[in-house]
Amino acid sequence: MMSVETEINFKLNGREVSLRVPATMKALAMLRDRLGLTGTKYACGEGECGACTINVDGKTVNSCLMYAVDCDGREVVTVEGLRTPEGLHPVQQAFVDHGAIQCGFCTPGMIMQAQHLLENNPTLTREEAKRGLEGNICRCTGYTKVLDAVEAVADKNGRCSHG
Amino acid sequence: MNAPQHASLIGQRIPKMDAPEKVAGKTRYIQDLNLPGQLYGLILRTERVHARIVSIDTSAAKALPGVRAVLTAADVPIHPIGVNKDNPPLKGDKVRCERDEVAAVAADSLEIAQAAIKLIKVEYEDLPPIFDPRDSIKDGAPVIHAAKPDNVAMAFDYAHGDVERGEAESDVVVEDEFTLHRVTHCCMGVSGVIADFEPVSGNLTLYSNTQVPFLHKREFAEVLGMDPSRIRIIQPPIGGGFGSKLDIYPFEPIAVYLAKATRRPVKLIFTREEEFIASPTRQPAIIRLRSGAKKDGTLTFRTVDVLLDNGGYTSWGATIPFVMMQTFSSLYRVPHCRYHTKAVYTNNPFAGSFRGYGNLQATFAIEQQMDKMADALGIEPYEFRLKNAQNAGEVTGQGMHFKTCGFQDCLETAAGRSGFVEKRKALGAAKGLSGVRRGVGMASMLHVGGGAKIYPSDGCGTILKLDDFGHVTIMTGASEIGQGSETVLAQLVCEELGVPMSAVTVVNNDTDITPWDVGVHASRTTFIAGNSAIGAARKAKDKILAAAATVSNMKAEEMDLKGGNIVRASDGEKVMPLAKMLRQLHFSDKAELVMTTNYYEPPSVHQDKGFKGDVSAAYAWATQVVEVEVDTDTGIVKLLKVWAAHDVGRVLNEMGIEGQIEGGIIMGQGYALCEDMPVVEGHLVNPAFRDYKLITAPEIPEMDISFIETMDGEGPQGAKGVGEAPSICMAAAVANAIENATGVRIASLPFTPERVYSALKGRPL
């Protein structure tokens, strides 16, 4: 069951990393089992729930579907990389302040997707946020407070009050 | 200069204490924990649904390098688990449903364990199966458990009044049959356990997601033949509960067997597919309901006959009749009631407890029939409900005493805010079977809101300590499963001790440290653990103020704790810093630390043999109105808006309680519209999120939530439990709204486009 290992080099949360990974390994397993970054979650393993969402070269990806070798040469950001030296990223802080978290298991993926949406559309509407978060399942919150948090960031970004 | 005013924390929007770690990805769930030297456990499941095990050959698996143990029933003590003790963790003689565990492997890696599982050969002899619970109770049906030759896992009979007399007094009698489907919890964090058995000391540490650590500890000791004091249960943060973790399940003892056999820690984590196949479900039910009323709209009687599909084994699902009967007997004033339920074995997946505990099923039946009866009587359904709604002070036929009751307020608020009566009339006048139609529907519910005295004790313990700097540590038996209990407990203690939230740590996840609690279930934690924590805090406060009286010129009762200080109660003037008083106590000649304990047992009673008695210290009420759009060409039902009015006693944390209600409404929406686990000949058809449809963000309705604050006298700061309430009404309300839109009433769930379209075309599924 040994598979061929390949050396890959990529930027992870702002730092260069280099490691050998099996050709069959998924990016999710690499992050969690090889690099100890357990913030990214396994919840379905087939790209249906968004709990494993990471950012690769500015786009969000289900890391349970992406092969680890495909990280080679890319820039990867996980939930652990969002935090700034000053504290939580504004999207993380908004999730705290607006009650967007209950069990918290979907939260890292939800935040990665929300951050991506806001980066590309800083003043997005609630409807746009709903569409953009369609791939992220939350069983606890009913999404309302997640959308409230995203909207709060959009408002801070200068969205006009009518959204 | 005026003394500073310290605002109460009660009712505030206080973020969850665990939120900053959760958003940073730092929270370590069971999936994220690894112990040194740990092995990976994996279970071989049968895939047969009813078969005799002829032989199991594990020799090839055992020979695989990296495999440390392969176990079958022959290797472990036979000690069945579960509510009826009918479920051996590893099956030796026969298998009874698709999920059944026939062998288990511990290996150096998950990959090796997966390879080993494939090398185990099992020979079976198939037995005749039962898939329809109605077939289970037919004469000559195959027997699933030899100990229960009639296939009845549990049966319940309840009655009050004289149903025959009630029927004789009725002007209108309505009878219906409702069919409820199978759904499951879909916790985002899959099931898992790490068993760490220390062979020298004989100590077992279990890292577990259980919602009932103290009951679990006791049951583990029984199953494993161990001294309970050698078992320690640590709960890492839990990725969703919703009732799924109330029982012990085979994978947990199996992990311990593997750890004992290998003398190494064993981690066993499900895949999502396994989570679907091998987790408990909500109990599917067939409900026959017959009710009567007088011309003036007074309810006269109800008779209820419920058949529950228990599946292959008995978990808590078989006991949901306890809760269902409360709704049938006591949601409305009904003078005569008779209720009969059987939970019967089939070769389907087995059912456990799930948020609402049978009340979604019961409410679906009763609240649709209330609409039908109102129509038959020519009374507006809202008025019909109001006429029969319970009031504060009533004691029901089942012995439930409603000391506070916001039911009528809930009805009036939900109806008023939604314009229900006018809307229902206008939309009903335009109802039809073509194009896109709109409708509104209403449903109400009653649920325990002050614990439920099912076990010998319904209590919770708290240990509270203050350090030399005024920092408070609350050690509570109550588990945090995401619902926010630790934050609410901290708020309640802060309110008593006059310290900020930042001065509190909550320890709630280690049976070696925390005092006993019966578990997170029955919407009880805020009420029971909250009262327990308040009691511990008041004892600490008494001690501190008594000490302060000896060093000031005031009596203890003239002082209070506010803003981290001891203050004069009358005007808030600072007497001395709290921390200074604590240090004085600690370092005085008669040195003392402020540490208190408290055990709160609610003033509820056990039901008698006839299921009568005031089982909860308080009761929660709600009315929800929904507006839907039905596309008659496709059968698609769109939920547009929900007006929810909940008697919550009192709001303790506004953001937290909104989160519970919003999340519960959406879970109820999923139950009503899209979630479904079709099981064909015992096999689950859709064990994946791809095919098991959960509500996603674009589908959520607009929500208008109202809190009815009845200030319960026994509740912590007046609050009642609310965790389960919000999901209970949704399916019934949607059913009534579909009828309002189309004139077609659908008595089975879920309202998928296929089912709705077929019903609208007169060919119900």
What does this structure look like?
The complex is a heterodimer of chains A (163) and B (765). By secondary structure, chain A is α+β, with helices and mostly antiparallel strands. Chain A has two domains: 5-81, Ubiquitin-like (UB roll), CATH 3.10.20; 90-156, DNA polymerase, domain 1. Chain A contains five helices and five strands. Chain A has helices at 27-34, 90-97, 107-120, 126-132, 144-156, and strands at residues 5-12, 15-22, 53-56, 59-62, 75-77. The mean pLDDT of chain A is 96. Chain B has 765 residues and is α+β, with helices and mostly antiparallel strands. Chain B folds into three domains: 19-26 and 459-600, Aldehyde oxidase/xanthine dehydrogenase, molybdopterin binding domain (Aldehyde Oxidoreductase, domain 4, 2-Layer Sandwich); 33-127 and 190-238 and 245-278, Aldehyde oxidase/xanthine dehydrogenase, a/b hammerhead (Aldehyde Oxidoreductase, domain 3), CATH 3.90.1170.50; 285-452 and 607-760, Aldehyde oxidase/xanthine dehydrogenase, molybdopterin binding domain (Aldehyde Oxidoreductase, domain 4), CATH 3.30.365.10. In chain B, the strands form seven sheets. In chain B, strands 3-5-1-12-9-10-11 form a seven-stranded mixed β-sheet, with helices on both faces. Chain A: Residues 6-82 form the 2Fe-2S ferredoxin-type domain.
